[in-house]
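Ticket #4471: structure export looks truncated?
Reporter: QA, pipeline team
Priority: medium

Steps to reproduce: submit the single chain below to the structure queue and open the exported record.
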Amino acid sequence: MQSSPNHSTGVSNIWLKAAIAGGLWASVEIIIGSFLHNLKVPFAGSTLASFGIVLMVAFMQIWPERGLIIRAGLICALMKSVSPSAVILGPMTGIMAEAVLLEAAIFLFGRNLAGYLIGGAIALFSTLIHKLFSLLILYGGNIIQIYINMFRFASRQINIPDAEPVVLLIYLGMIYLLIGAGAAMAGFFIGRRAQKNRFGKHNFDTSLDSEKNFFQINPNLSFSIPFLILHLLFLPAGLVLINYTQVYIHLPIIGIYLLFCLTYYKGIRNRLRKPFLWIQLLIIIVLASLFWNIFSETREEEPFEGMWIGLGMAVRAVFVVLAFSSFSVELRNPAIKDLIFRTGFSQLYMALNLSFAALPAMISNLSPSLNKLHNPFSFFPELLHQAEVWHKSLRMEQ
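Actual output as written to the record:
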């Protein structure tokens, strides 16, 4: 077994456990997430969130330490958000919200089945809120009007003209709450079962890749604190311009900013090469064209109003995507690393580096277990067993 003692030296026990739990959570997100997204499985994000709830509640049965879930969620969020060109902030905030709410519920209601059920329910429900909020940020408030008109059109087609659009969201929310509670219950019993069968034989690879580092910098990239501040300020300013000024005012300003981003951060151009982005924008334009003023008396006088609204939403979406991607690139500035150390987050940094060093072996260990995914009571206990092995191995290196 090869290892690198430098990765684990100085990491406290709870951060060591968080590094292992967060690393395994990220491995599940990466391996199973890629599988689900490649197959275009609906609600892939919610499915992954359910797996995260199962895993974290199960971990609490073998490592019942306060603050473990938040730490593991932070590490998983940072690992999941790293890509060659940018840190994608959407998954980071979603995973962190899930971890914080689950931890908070356990803190308030106790480490018991009721606390886990409540925590799992609100944690998964938060993914629905996060999705809705993301759509609002991406497309603006016009998306709400399109949804309402689509709902009213559909309800009239099935002869339920008095149905309210909010009813669908309420039912969807209830489904999320129930599935989240079910995921927590599964995690509870999986963890209890694993607790009774600890430290069996193993053949897991626990080697560390000494070259892996969260702040490993591409030598072709250059960073600028002023540009970081520029993106931080222009993100809300650009949205205000889009919302409250005429197109002939904001379009040239937004266009110059996006041209700068695409020129200076060549890596973010990959975001524009993804067909799914353009398919999504095309769908938005078509839906806006069909449903924006479908019940308006001025529809015949302004037949293209919906199309222009849809085009405006598409421009907003491209701006948000590229602005966040540019901002995310600047977050990898080595100065951020120095700031983390100076402000007392050295434990997070060391735990994160440890998780990245272990990630290749974790993914390698996880891949053969995917054939057990259909049976969570076989798949997840194996992950917990791997965690115990990792913990024992890394503790010996400290």
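Status: closed, not a bug. The export was complete when the record was re-opened. Leaving a note from the reviewer for reference: The chain has 15 helices and no strands.
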